[in-house]
Amino acid sequence: MRFQASPALPRPDRASALVLFRGDGNKALPKDLDAGLRTAASAAFQTKEFQGKKGESLLLHGAPAGRLLLVGLGDRKPEDPDALRASRMRIVEALRAA
Q1: Cβ atoms 9, 18 nearer than 8 A
Q2: What is the rounded distance in angstroms from the CA atom of residue 30 to the CA atom of residue 52?
Q3: Rounded Cα distance, 82 and 21, in Å
Q4: Which one, of 70, 67, 37, 43, lies nearest residue 55 by Cα?
């Protein structure tokens, strides 16, 4: 499994999954996110299925972009390298199980 971190969204044909880190209550989504994934993520936020709490993750499926994994960071910022490092195993486990 190969990971690449980028502030820009990859082309759908170049990534099998997209991981978005979110803190408590952060419902913002990238403007260029695939419409199917945007709808699924918005629904997860509204139903409180995903809230961005530390240790929380939710894998969503949508075409054509594939999979979107939402990973909660709690009160930490996505730019925090320790927060990303701590989330690594959850990401691998969630994507392998899918």
Answers
A1: yes
A2: 16
A3: 13
A4: 70
Sign for the CA dihedral angle at 86, 22, 69, 4 comes to: negative
67, 79, 68, 62: which is closest to 23 by C-alpha? Answer: 79
DSSP H helical segments within the chain, as ranges? 35-46, 81-97
Cα 19 to Cα 33: distance, rounded to the nearest angstrom: 12
CA angle 42, 83, 87 (to 5 degrees): 70
Q: What is the mean pLDDT of each run of 10 residues along the chain (98 residues)?
A: 66 73 86 82 91 89 72 80 78 80
Residue 94 structure tokens: 């969630």
pTM of the model: 0.79
Give yes or no for a contact between 69 and 17, defined as CB atoms under 8 angstroms apart. Answer: yes
Phi-psi region of 74 (alpha: psi -120 to 50; beta: other; left: phi over 0): left
